[in-house]
Amino acid sequence: MSIGKLYGPLANPRVQKCILVAEFNGVEIETTPDFKFGVDNKSEDFTAKFPMGQTPGFETSKGTLLSESAAIAYYIAQSNPNTTLLGKDAEELAKIWQLNLYSETAVANASISILKPRWFNLAVTPEENTKNYDYLHRVLTYLESYTSGKTYLVGDRISLADINLVGNLKLYFAELMTSELRTKYPNVTKYFESLINLPQFVKVIGEIKYLE
Q1: Nearest C-alpha neighbor of 169 from the set 133, 123, 210
Q2: CA distance 93 to 148
Q3: Which pTM was predicted?
Q4: I want to staple 191 with a disulfide (CB 3.0 to 4.6 A). Which of 21, 147, 170, 212 is the partner?
Protein backbone atom coordinates (compact mmCIF):
# COMPACT_ATOMS: atom_id res chain seq x y z
CA MET A 1 0.00 0.00 0.00
CA SER A 2 1.32 3.42 -0.97
CA ILE A 3 2.28 5.79 1.84
CA GLY A 4 1.77 8.83 -0.38
CA LYS A 5 2.33 10.56 -3.70
CA LEU A 6 5.56 12.26 -4.77
CA TYR A 7 5.18 15.14 -7.22
CA GLY A 8 8.02 16.17 -9.51
CA PRO A 9 9.98 15.16 -12.63
CA LEU A 10 11.73 11.82 -12.26
CA ALA A 11 15.01 13.24 -13.58
CA ASN A 12 15.18 15.78 -10.75
CA PRO A 13 17.95 14.76 -8.28
CA ARG A 14 15.84 15.71 -5.26
CA VAL A 15 12.94 13.65 -6.56
CA GLN A 16 15.33 10.76 -7.20
CA LYS A 17 16.61 10.99 -3.63
CA CYS A 18 13.10 10.48 -2.26
CA ILE A 19 12.46 7.56 -4.61
CA LEU A 20 15.75 5.97 -3.55
CA VAL A 21 14.77 6.19 0.11
CA ALA A 22 11.55 4.35 -0.71
CA GLU A 23 13.47 1.73 -2.71
CA PHE A 24 15.98 1.04 0.06
CA ASN A 25 13.29 1.22 2.74
CA GLY A 26 10.91 -1.24 1.14
CA VAL A 27 7.93 1.11 1.06
CA GLU A 28 5.67 2.05 -1.83
CA ILE A 29 5.10 5.59 -3.07
CA GLU A 30 3.29 6.95 -6.10
CA THR A 31 5.26 9.09 -8.56
CA THR A 32 4.41 11.44 -11.44
CA PRO A 33 6.36 10.24 -14.51
CA ASP A 34 4.73 12.80 -16.83
CA PHE A 35 5.33 15.80 -14.55
CA LYS A 36 6.58 18.83 -16.52
CA PHE A 37 8.55 21.35 -14.48
CA GLY A 38 7.64 24.90 -15.40
CA VAL A 39 4.13 23.80 -16.32
CA ASP A 40 2.65 21.39 -13.80
CA ASN A 41 4.26 23.05 -10.79
CA LYS A 42 2.56 26.32 -11.80
CA SER A 43 -0.90 24.83 -12.13
CA GLU A 44 -3.71 25.85 -9.79
CA ASP A 45 -4.05 22.32 -8.45
CA PHE A 46 -0.35 22.07 -7.60
CA THR A 47 0.06 25.53 -6.08
CA ALA A 48 -3.07 25.00 -4.00
CA LYS A 49 -1.17 22.18 -2.31
CA PHE A 50 2.35 23.59 -2.57
CA PRO A 51 2.12 27.41 -2.78
CA MET A 52 5.81 27.95 -3.56
CA GLY A 53 5.54 25.76 -6.65
CA GLN A 54 8.72 23.89 -5.80
CA THR A 55 9.44 20.24 -6.39
CA PRO A 56 9.40 17.72 -5.00
CA GLY A 57 6.14 17.91 -3.14
CA PHE A 58 4.65 15.01 -1.21
CA GLU A 59 1.11 14.22 -0.14
CA THR A 60 0.90 11.48 2.48
CA SER A 61 -1.85 8.89 2.44
CA LYS A 62 -3.40 10.82 5.35
CA GLY A 63 -3.42 14.06 3.36
CA THR A 64 -0.47 15.80 5.01
CA LEU A 65 1.42 17.99 2.54
CA LEU A 66 5.21 18.14 2.67
CA SER A 67 7.78 20.15 0.76
CA GLU A 68 11.60 20.22 1.00
CA SER A 69 13.23 16.99 -0.10
CA ALA A 70 15.04 16.48 3.22
CA ALA A 71 11.73 16.44 5.10
CA ILE A 72 10.11 14.18 2.50
CA ALA A 73 13.03 11.75 2.53
CA TYR A 74 12.94 11.60 6.33
CA TYR A 75 9.20 10.94 6.33
CA ILE A 76 9.63 8.10 3.84
CA ALA A 77 12.52 6.67 5.86
CA GLN A 78 10.71 6.65 9.19
CA SER A 79 7.48 5.33 7.67
CA ASN A 80 8.94 1.83 7.99
CA PRO A 81 9.16 1.03 11.73
CA ASN A 82 11.96 -1.43 10.96
CA THR A 83 13.99 0.98 8.85
CA THR A 84 17.76 0.70 8.89
CA LEU A 85 18.25 4.05 7.14
CA LEU A 86 18.22 6.16 10.31
CA GLY A 87 20.95 4.49 12.33
CA LYS A 88 20.93 2.27 15.39
CA ASP A 89 20.68 4.95 18.09
CA ALA A 90 20.47 8.68 18.76
CA GLU A 91 24.18 9.19 18.14
CA GLU A 92 24.05 7.62 14.70
CA LEU A 93 20.88 9.52 13.81
CA ALA A 94 22.54 12.80 14.80
CA LYS A 95 25.56 11.94 12.66
CA ILE A 96 23.28 11.10 9.74
CA TRP A 97 21.62 14.51 10.02
CA GLN A 98 24.98 16.24 10.30
CA LEU A 99 26.05 14.64 7.02
CA ASN A 100 22.66 15.25 5.41
CA LEU A 101 22.99 18.96 6.09
CA TYR A 102 26.58 18.99 4.85
CA SER A 103 25.47 17.32 1.62
CA GLU A 104 22.57 19.73 1.15
CA THR A 105 24.71 22.82 1.77
CA ALA A 106 28.48 22.51 1.27
CA VAL A 107 28.52 19.64 -1.22
CA ALA A 108 25.64 20.96 -3.32
CA ASN A 109 26.79 24.59 -3.25
CA ALA A 110 30.36 23.75 -4.26
CA SER A 111 29.23 22.18 -7.52
CA ILE A 112 26.48 24.67 -8.32
CA SER A 113 28.80 27.67 -7.87
CA ILE A 114 30.96 26.31 -10.70
CA LEU A 115 28.31 24.77 -12.93
CA LYS A 116 25.63 27.47 -12.83
CA PRO A 117 27.73 29.98 -14.83
CA ARG A 118 28.38 27.24 -17.42
CA TRP A 119 24.73 26.28 -17.69
CA PHE A 120 23.47 29.85 -18.03
CA ASN A 121 26.47 31.43 -19.76
CA LEU A 122 27.13 33.81 -16.86
CA ALA A 123 30.28 35.88 -16.56
CA VAL A 124 32.69 34.88 -13.79
CA THR A 125 35.84 36.78 -12.87
CA PRO A 126 39.13 34.86 -12.52
CA GLU A 127 39.04 35.65 -8.80
CA GLU A 128 35.55 34.20 -8.43
CA ASN A 129 36.51 31.13 -10.43
CA THR A 130 39.55 30.52 -8.23
CA LYS A 131 37.45 30.98 -5.10
CA ASN A 132 34.83 28.52 -6.38
CA TYR A 133 37.41 25.84 -7.17
CA ASP A 134 39.18 26.37 -3.86
CA TYR A 135 35.88 25.73 -2.10
CA LEU A 136 35.27 22.63 -4.22
CA HIS A 137 38.65 21.22 -3.19
CA ARG A 138 37.97 21.99 0.48
CA VAL A 139 34.74 20.00 0.28
CA LEU A 140 36.41 17.11 -1.53
CA THR A 141 39.35 17.11 0.89
CA TYR A 142 36.97 16.77 3.83
CA LEU A 143 35.08 13.95 2.11
CA GLU A 144 38.34 12.25 1.13
CA SER A 145 39.31 12.09 4.79
CA TYR A 146 35.84 11.14 6.01
CA THR A 147 35.33 8.29 3.54
CA SER A 148 38.78 6.77 4.14
CA GLY A 149 38.30 3.10 4.97
CA LYS A 150 34.51 3.41 4.90
CA THR A 151 31.91 1.66 2.80
CA TYR A 152 29.10 3.63 4.43
CA LEU A 153 29.14 7.05 6.10
CA VAL A 154 27.52 5.98 9.37
CA GLY A 155 27.62 2.49 10.82
CA ASP A 156 27.82 -0.73 8.86
CA ARG A 157 24.96 -0.31 6.40
CA ILE A 158 23.56 2.25 4.00
CA SER A 159 21.74 5.17 5.59
CA LEU A 160 19.87 8.30 4.61
CA ALA A 161 23.23 10.11 4.71
CA ASP A 162 24.63 7.88 1.95
CA ILE A 163 21.59 8.36 -0.27
CA ASN A 164 21.87 12.12 0.18
CA LEU A 165 25.59 12.31 -0.50
CA VAL A 166 25.63 9.98 -3.51
CA GLY A 167 22.74 11.96 -4.98
CA ASN A 168 24.75 15.17 -4.70
CA LEU A 169 28.00 13.58 -5.85
CA LYS A 170 26.31 12.39 -9.02
CA LEU A 171 26.65 15.90 -10.43
CA TYR A 172 30.33 15.97 -9.47
CA PHE A 173 31.15 12.78 -11.32
CA ALA A 174 28.99 13.62 -14.33
CA GLU A 175 30.24 17.19 -14.84
CA LEU A 176 33.25 18.03 -12.64
CA MET A 177 35.34 15.01 -11.66
CA THR A 178 37.86 14.53 -14.44
CA SER A 179 40.13 11.49 -14.38
CA GLU A 180 42.75 13.72 -12.74
CA LEU A 181 40.39 14.65 -9.91
CA ARG A 182 39.21 11.07 -9.48
CA THR A 183 42.85 10.09 -9.03
CA LYS A 184 43.44 12.95 -6.60
CA TYR A 185 40.45 11.90 -4.46
CA PRO A 186 40.53 8.08 -4.58
CA ASN A 187 38.53 7.51 -1.39
CA VAL A 188 35.65 9.66 -2.60
CA THR A 189 35.76 7.92 -5.97
CA LYS A 190 35.80 4.44 -4.43
CA TYR A 191 32.95 5.34 -2.07
CA PHE A 192 30.82 6.76 -4.87
CA GLU A 193 31.44 3.86 -7.24
CA SER A 194 30.67 1.22 -4.62
CA LEU A 195 27.22 2.70 -4.00
CA ILE A 196 26.19 4.11 -7.38
CA ASN A 197 26.41 0.59 -8.82
CA LEU A 198 23.95 -0.87 -6.31
CA PRO A 199 20.74 -2.07 -8.02
CA GLN A 200 18.59 0.59 -6.36
CA PHE A 201 20.78 3.44 -7.63
CA VAL A 202 21.02 1.93 -11.11
CA LYS A 203 17.24 1.56 -11.25
CA VAL A 204 16.51 5.16 -10.20
CA ILE A 205 19.50 7.13 -11.51
CA GLY A 206 20.85 4.99 -14.32
CA GLU A 207 24.39 4.85 -15.64
CA ILE A 208 26.83 7.67 -14.88
CA LYS A 209 29.21 8.61 -17.68
CA TYR A 210 32.46 9.92 -16.24
CA LEU A 211 34.49 12.79 -17.60
CA GLU A 212 37.87 12.02 -19.11
Answers
A1: 210
A2: 21
A3: 0.94
A4: 147
